[in-house]
């Protein structure tokens, strides 16, 4: 069967290709320019091929940048993973309680949570900073992880997904003698994988890219997360080496790209699914 | 006799366990919620009514709030955010709907490759992409180089009161359009293809299908994205912080960037907390009005 090429098809493909190029071009440029010198980056004509300064930029990044990019990546990985696991676990348990049990404080507590979601996170910036410094947790992983455990969005998402969880399965588990916690762990969680992975991915992305709170509470370069480390690069030098900064940005991007390649399906459906319910 | 007692005690215990189960499920979240959210929210209110002196709040009544009304920098930051909001959000969502519809077209070849491309910006960290765009948009940066090739004089993206906002909007649009495309694609996949088939049989062209099927089917999601983007723009921080540091002359300063400067560069905790609460009220008003105007969308 031969498809006839129509004008509308050509328009369609041209439009998509334009959007595609605009989307990937800056990323391509970030990687390529990280091997270029300042003269190449700010030359008269766009230079789209790799330069010869990769090694020089790398050495500059290792010795003169004031940050340790690999340490920052490790910090980000640990903080984001632990925050995500804790936030998802807490939100899932709470969402399960709200969806599947009738208890006295259910409505009141849910309404308090509903009001709290109206308050933007910037409101708690200063009191949290005061609290964290009072107990000496500044510059630690916990300063970031503890407040990140509270995901109201997660409670809503999981409650919503548990509302359609069949009660018959729970009853069957009870008849088989499982207590509610064993049932939650062995029946409910495994059957809620789509919602769990959606929440985990959205939470992880948020934690990975969070700048403001870590910027406030981390001021020791060995505890920097990736966003904080990158944000210090432009203001720490008088004459910045732009290729070096782009190299740092490129290196910092690699873990996310790898994670995405590993979990591609979950990633896309996670973001889709997180909002389409 | 004794077995009866133990059995009854066992039943009692089980009854208590049954009653306490939901509370046990809720407890970890509730404790974290109380300590790291509810308490700070109330504490912030207290701080906003005080001067921060010697490591503690000292009651100052409405002093901080009355200062806000005469603080032209804050109001300018709010106007900046509103300008960005009014222009960037509709443009981004329009682009996202168009892109989603194109990417969903059954006639598109190499669909998954293209979808990946549109998805790529989401994977670039906010600071990393803002840094990249700060070089792309520099006076002798990539964009001006490209414009120069078609004979357009360099545009001072980051150094002019007018263009600094445009620069922030360009960077944001590049990064966030893909995110919205993904959400909309999810919505489009829930539209049964039979509807389009039926429309085609009835003689509706692509444009007509777009307005009569695609847009109405996506409406709830678009409302949700509109409200989320509005909240996100009113809380904008990273992009102006990295791209322009709010300049030149506060022309790209946003409320949260200002709050950061007041709180953590000048350490006026009382005033910064008051700013945060005013911002919270403004965001609440905006969300409420949008919900009312749009009839709720996916949220209600």
Report on the structure:
Chain A has 277 residues and is mainly alpha-helical. Chain A folds into 2 domains: 1-63 and 233-261, no CATH class; 69-227, MetI-like fold (Orthogonal Bundle). Chain A contains 15 helices and no strands. The longest helix of chain A has 32 residues, at 69-100. Chain A is globular and about 75 Å long. The mean pLDDT of chain A is 88. The N and C termini of chain B lie far apart (58 Å). A two-stranded antiparallel sheet of chain B has the order 1-2.
What keywords describe this structure?
heterodimer, A: 277 residues, mainly alpha, MetI-like fold, 2 domains, 15 helices, 71% helix, globular, B: 300 residues, two-stranded antiparallel sheet, 12 helices, 3% strand, disordered N terminus
Question: In a few lines, what is going on in this structure?
Answer:
The complex is a heterodimer of chains A (277) and B (300). Chain A is built from 15 helices and no strands.
- Characterize the biggest β-sheet of chain A: none
User: Could you estimate the helical fraction of the residues of chain A in percent?
Assistant: over 70%
Mean pLDDT of chain A comes to: 88
Counting structural domains of chain B, the number is: 2
Q: Structural class, from helix and strand content of chain A?
A: mainly alpha
Number of strands of chain B: 2
The value of Rg of chain A in angstroms is 24 Å
Strand content range of chain A: under 5%
Low-confidence residue ranges of chain A = none
Name the chain pair whose interface involves the most residues.
A-B, 93 and 98 residues
Count, helices of chain B: 12
Straight-line N-to-C gap of chain B:
58 Å
Approximate shape of chain A: globular
CATH superfamily of the largest domain in chain A: MetI-like
DSSP helical segment count of chain A: 15
